[in-house]
Amino acid sequence: MTDNKRLKRILNLLDEHYPKDIKCYLDHENPWQLLVATILSAQCTDDRVNIVTKDLFKKYTSIKDFAEVEQEELEQDIRSTGFYRNKAKNIIACCRALLVDHDGHVPKDIEDLVKLAGVGRKTANVIRGNIYDIPSIVVDTHVKRISKKLGLTPYDDPVKIEFDLMKILPKEHWIRYNTQVIAHGRAICTARSPKCERCFLLPYCKTGLMDRMDVLGNEK
């Protein structure tokens, strides 16, 4: 099977098993809420972030509120997300920059986004894809792990993985590849105990096939 046919089969299987519609796992009602939530999501689960932001966005109802809060107070509000000191510092600095440099609007250009405190390419691409419908590839832990298992990239560096996937994935799959792979990573290809026996992508998974061969070899 050629690489193109193999990739097409992988994408078709993802489409068959998971919705094609874009699904953002972080709860938000507007662009700046998604920006804050994505900053909080670093080294934290989406479920935990959603628990925190449920009350957080009731307390802070505008970019201005976040820009003016004392860092120590915000730290306590977001403490359970981990790395709360850096996150609080970045959120405040980010919101101040939005007010001063962008008239209180979240920019769409990736160059402008990554200049904001606490915003890397992952966060920038979440905003571009989910808010502005700009084809973007978000490399989170699921995309990193599963893309390597499928042999779509040899790298560990998220930026290198992003550019590898941009080269081979059709643009119409860029955004939904992320959401579908997250769903797959949560339901089947979990980090600690992947359910390889249930995985429809097993024939294309280098790690899964090697593990299966080891099991068969031990059974002989």
TrEMBL record:
GO BP term, pick one: base-excision repair, AP site formation
One Pfam family named in its UniProt record: EndIII_4Fe-2S
Keywords tagged on the record: 4Fe-4S, DNA damage, DNA repair, DNA-binding, Endonuclease, Glycosidase, Hydrolase, Iron, Iron-sulfur, Lyase, Metal-binding, Nuclease
Cofactor note: Binds 1 [4Fe-4S] cluster.
Enzyme class of the recorded protein, top EC level: lyase
All residue ranges annotated as the HhH-GPD domain in the record: 40-187
Keyword Lyase: yes
Catalysed reaction, written as an equation: 2'-deoxyribonucleotide-(2'-deoxyribose 5'-phosphate)-2'-deoxyribonucleotide-DNA = a 3'-end 2'-deoxyribonucleotide-(2,3-dehydro-2,3-deoxyribose 5'-phosphate)-DNA + a 5'-end 5'-phospho-2'-deoxyribonucleoside-DNA + H(+)
GO molecular function: 4 iron, 4 sulfur cluster binding; class I DNA-(apurinic or apyrimidinic site) endonuclease activity; DNA binding; DNA N-glycosylase activity; metal ion binding
Highest taxon, organism lineage: Bacteria
Cofactor: [4Fe-4S] cluster
Key word Transmembrane helix present: no
InterPro entries: DNA_glycosylase, Endonuclease3_FeS-loop_motif, Endouclease-III_FeS-bd_BS, HhH-GPD_domain, HhH_base_excis_C, HhH_motif, Nth
Family the entry assigns: Belongs to the Nth/MutY family.
Name this polypeptide is given: Endonuclease III
Organism for this UniProt entry: Vallitalea pronyensis
